[in-house]
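lol forgot to send this yesterday, sorry. struct tokens for the thing we talked abt
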């Protein structure tokens, strides 16, 4: 069975991403007939054209078996969805959708948060498209293969995923590092690269610390342009922290771009604009972990 993977649509609201990887991902349980009864007559169609549209299902994969996938939605309802040769598996790679990664059906791991577009085939649902974040896939894969080391890192992974919709007031800010950019640019200077790796090292020394990356611009340009620019700056910083500084992706809260909102200085002066063209890297510790 061949699956093609293309870039997913624009990044959804944070709440749509906030599914915690469950403990079941470690054991990789299979869908059994005892767990869920699905009547399948004949082979799953290889052509889904003209089939009536089914519901969109947003949840996490709780079991896999053959051409079946069980998805659990918030509230605990489980739905078994069939997979076809025509099912498209799409992953958005990199934070803020700045990069794209092609992945196949073997990437549909237990615990992976997914959005599934379906069609009706008799009494069954067949997946026409499965969408997910590559960052969630990386976390699920690390947990499945046991490469995440120690209780603290597992707790941080869970806290990070949950934190995608968490109130920032649940965290204590332990430090802020600002990276500055030239007008219209998102390249990181050598000095900023050193500062980012030092920030990652300092945060790594804290128990269960997470990083929150927020991008900003000055007031030059349109709102739409500045929104994209702030996201690119945040995405570049996130990628550098992960790839060059070794910061683990499950210890990163979902980054965001704030365009020209929340200026650090007066945009009417050149010096003020320079201070506003920044990405803020916030080192956070959950108040429950921090004892407050």
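and heres what i got for the seq, position by position
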């Amino acid at each position: 069975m061949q699956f093609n993977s293309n870039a997913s649509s624009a990044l959804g609201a944070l709440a749509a991403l906030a599914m915690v990887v469950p403990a079941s991902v470690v054991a990789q349980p299979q869908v059994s007939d005892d767990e869920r009864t699905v009547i399948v007559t004949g082979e799953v169609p290889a052509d889904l054209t003209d089939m009536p549209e089914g519901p969109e299902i947003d949840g996490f994969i709780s079991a896999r078996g053959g051409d079946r996938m069980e998805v659990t939605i918030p509230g605990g309802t489980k739905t078994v969805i069939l997979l076809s040769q025509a099912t498209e598996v799409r992953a958005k790679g990199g934070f803020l959708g700045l990069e794209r990664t092609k992945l196949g059906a073997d990437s549909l791991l237990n615990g992976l948060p997914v959005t599934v577009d379906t069609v009706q085939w008799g009494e069954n649902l067949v997946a026409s498209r499965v969408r997910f974040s590559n960052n969630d896939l990386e976390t699920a894969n690390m947990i499945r293969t046991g490469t995440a080391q120690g209780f603290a890192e597992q707790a941080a992974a869970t806290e990070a995923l949950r934190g995608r919709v968490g109130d920032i007031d649940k965290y204590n800010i332990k430090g802020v590092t600002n990276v500055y950019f030239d007008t219209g640019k998102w390249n990181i200077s050598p000095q900023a690269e050193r500062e980012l790796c030092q920030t990652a090292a300092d945060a790594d020394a804290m128990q269960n610390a997470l990083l929150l990356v927020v991008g900003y611009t000055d007031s030059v340009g349109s709102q739409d342009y500045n929104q994209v620019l702030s996201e690119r700056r945040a995405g570049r910083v996130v990628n550098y922290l992960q790839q060059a500084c070794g910061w683990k992706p499950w210890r990163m809260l979902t980054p965001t771009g704030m365009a020209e909102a929340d200026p650090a200085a007066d945009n009417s002066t050149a010096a003020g604009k320079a201070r506003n063209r920044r990405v803020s890297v916030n080192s956070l510790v959950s108040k429950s972990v921090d004892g407050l």
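The domain at 150-290 is CATH 3.30.1330.60 (60s Ribosomal Protein L30; Chain: A;). anyway ping me if u want another try
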